[in-house]
Specification:
By secondary structure, the chain is α+β, with helices and mostly antiparallel strands. It contains two helices and five strands, in the order H-E-E-E-H-E-E. The chain is globular and about 40 Å long. The structure holds guanosine-5'-monophosphate and zinc ion. The site of guanosine-5'-monophosphate has 12 residues, from strand 2. Zinc ion binds next to helix 1.
Length: about 120
């Protein structure tokens, strides 16, 4: 598995840094965001280090689809299927990406505004 020594989310994936993990399989980990912006705020990451969605290639299509399916599963398991939830992936500086390891935000449990800031 390709991980990066100095990447925060690779450290979480390896278990070097603790996180409240809610789901794990051979290529994906979901865990609670340390600074939740909604009653449910989890992050879904690939176990493999990919810095940004901007680096995704056609070979990654199945993996990125899997991240979305895991996000939906976590939202459903958290009881958000009926009222709705939001899935967000920030990519790059203008979007406010602060951790450079791909992650989907899964947010729910309150009404969201649109457009996002
Ligand atoms: P970004 O701004 O890159 O889209 O999102 C990064 C997210 O990672 C933020 O929502 C932030 O709260 C979360 N985060 C940063 N450091 C940690 C950490 O050490 N543990 C966990 N669980 N979440 C973190
Ligand atoms: Zn990483």
């Amino acid at each position: 598995m390709s991980t990066s020594d100095d990447c925060l989310f690779c450290k979480i994936a390896r278990g070097d840094i603790k996180a409240a993990i809610t789901y794990r399989d051979d290529r994906t980990i979901a865990f609670k965001d340390i600074g939740p912006k909604a009653p449910l705020h989890e992050l879904v990451i690939p176990a493999r280090h990919i810095a940004s969605l901007a680096e995704a290639t056609p070979a990654d299509a199945e993996l990125f689809g899997h991240l979305m399916v895991v996000a939906a599963q976590r939202a459903k398991e958290s009881g958000l299927a009926e009222n709705g939830f939001r899935v967000v992936m920030n990519a790059g500086d203008d979007a406010g990406q602060s951790v450079h390891h791909v992650h989907l935000h899964v947010l729910g449990g309150r009404a969201m505004v649109w457009p996002p800031g």
